[in-house]
């Protein structure tokens, strides 16, 4: 379909994965069906597992894999959240949520998702960037840039 692990690969999704692999901000990549096709190392902290240990995850499995609640602690489905509009309506979305990682730890995050197109009208997937909000110290898993010696 449109995923990185299946048949024909979208150049846009390949480039999105490359970007995610090279930034310190937690980021995930979805194909046009909403299948999680990649998340980067900084996102592993929020998800509670390495991507290479779990692989691609269909959208229908998200809720059972990573239980989510709204900012007030009320359980919600990612498939019915503001963030789902990126796949359903191809529009960007932003939402504060709490995600329970596979390690059992619940983390408060702010997530922003936006659609990806490979032409004016061909939707190929989406990316989402997010950051933990509980400690107020920037992206989850990111550490301060060390100072250079002598400067």
3D architecture notes:
The chain has one domain: 2-Layer Sandwich (Beta-Lactamase). The protein has 5 helices and 7 strands, in the order αββαααββαβββ. Strands 2-1-7-6-5-3-4 form a 7-stranded antiparallel β-sheet, with helices on both faces. The chain is α+β, with helices and mostly antiparallel strands and about 150 residues long. It is globular, with a radius of gyration of 16 Å. Residues about 1-5 and about 135-150 have low confidence and may be disordered.
Would you spell out the secondary-structure blueprint of this structure?
Elements: H1 11-21, E1 27-31, E2 36-39, H2 41-47, H3 51-54, H4 62-65, E3 68-70, E4 75-76, H5 85-88, E5 93-100, E6 106-117, E7 123-132
Antiparallel strand pairs: 1-2, 1-7, 3-4, 3-5, 5-6, 6-7
Q: How is the biggest beta sheet arranged?
A: 7 strands, antiparallel
Helix content: 10-25%
- CATH topology, what is it called? Beta-Lactamase
Structural category is alpha+beta
Q: What's the multimeric state?
A: single chain
| CATH classification, class level | Alpha Beta
Number of strands: 7
Gross morphology: globular
For the record, give the distance between the C-alpha atoms at the N and C termini, rounded to a whole number.
50 Å
- The total tally of domains equals 1
What is the CATH architecture annotation?
A: 2-Layer Sandwich
Sequence of strands across the biggest β-sheet = 2-1-7-6-5-3-4
Keywords:
alpha+beta, 151 residues, seven-stranded antiparallel sheet, Beta-Lactamase, 7 strands, disordered N terminus
Short account of what is shown:
With 151 residues, this protein is of the alpha+beta class. The protein is built from five helices and seven strands, in the order αββαααββαβββ.
């Amino acid at each position: 379909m449109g995923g990185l692990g299946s048949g024909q690969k979208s150049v846009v999704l390949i480039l999105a994965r490359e970007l995610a692999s090279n930034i310190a901000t937690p980021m995930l990549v979805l194909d046009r069906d909403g299948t999680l096709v990649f998340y980067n190392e900084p996102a592993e902290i929020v998800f509670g597992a390495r991507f290479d240990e779990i692989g691609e995850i269909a959208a229908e499995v998200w809720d059972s894999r990573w239980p989510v609640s709204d900012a007030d602690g009320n359980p919600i489905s990612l498939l019915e959240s503001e963030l789902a509009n990126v796949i359903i309506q191809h529009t960007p979305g932003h939402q504060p949520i709490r995600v329970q990682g596979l390690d059992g730890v619940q983390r408060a995050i702010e997530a922003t998702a936006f659609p990806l197109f490979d032409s004016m009208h061909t939707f190929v997937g989406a990316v989402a960037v997010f950051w933990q909000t509980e400690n107020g110290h920037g992206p989850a898993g990111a550490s301060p840039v060390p100072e250079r010696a002598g400067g």
